[in-house]
Amino acid sequence: MGSLIYFNSASLDGYIAGPDGRWEWATPDAEVHSFVNDLLAPARVHLYGRKVYEVMKVWDDLPLEDLPPAEREFALQWRDIDKVVFSSTLDAVTTRRTELRRVFDPAQVRESVDASPTPVAIGGGLLASAAARAGVLDEVHIVVAPAVVGGGTRFLDEGLRLDLELFDERRFANGFVYLGYRVA
């Protein structure tokens, strides 16, 4: 039986993008990037909302020879996973191994996750919040960046309540901190 895991980076005050939509303050160095690669490697399916998909799809065509080793590894991983994009506004998806679904159906997602021999990753605060509200989110993974941005796009929706059990943590040389939680 698989599990549905949410991973994202966030500022210390809980935002994945600042008020201006920018997130360069959360750009991982090689150590953090390698850790995230290892964390997400077992997930053979990733679920995305439209905004996260539009940010992530760059990995499909980046010239590998131009990338540092950790980024090259991530690009290769991303190209080799199945992706499901939930969007009612996107006309089509343009990346390989990608399916477009119009509606996020928690029961269908739970059924797919339960049938998966590996974890299923979910990307984006809005989609992860919908999964959490529906009771289908199993784990939350966050890399906290040493920045306070004062507003923007939240890691998880305001007003969402989850009880979490810490099961993993790691501190990085650049001041970033990883925390892994199970949803209680």
UniProtKB/TrEMBL annotation:
<dbReference type="Pfam" id="PF01872">
    <property type="entry name" value="RibD_C"/>
</dbReference>
<dbReference type="InterPro" id="IPR024072">
    <property type="entry name" value="DHFR-like_dom_sf"/>
</dbReference>
<dbReference type="InterPro" id="IPR050765">
    <property type="entry name" value="Riboflavin_Biosynth_HTPR"/>
</dbReference>
<protein>
    <submittedName>
        <fullName>Dihydrofolate reductase</fullName>
    </submittedName>
</protein>
<dbReference type="InterPro" id="IPR002734">
    <property type="entry name" value="RibDG_C"/>
</dbReference>
<dbReference type="GO" id="GO:0009231">
    <property type="term" value="P:riboflavin biosynthetic process"/>
</dbReference>
<feature type="domain" description="Bacterial bifunctional deaminase-reductase C-terminal">
    <location>
        <begin position="4"/>
        <end position="177"/>
    </location>
</feature>
<dbReference type="GO" id="GO:0008703">
    <property type="term" value="F:5-amino-6-(5-phosphoribosylamino)uracil reductase activity"/>
</dbReference>
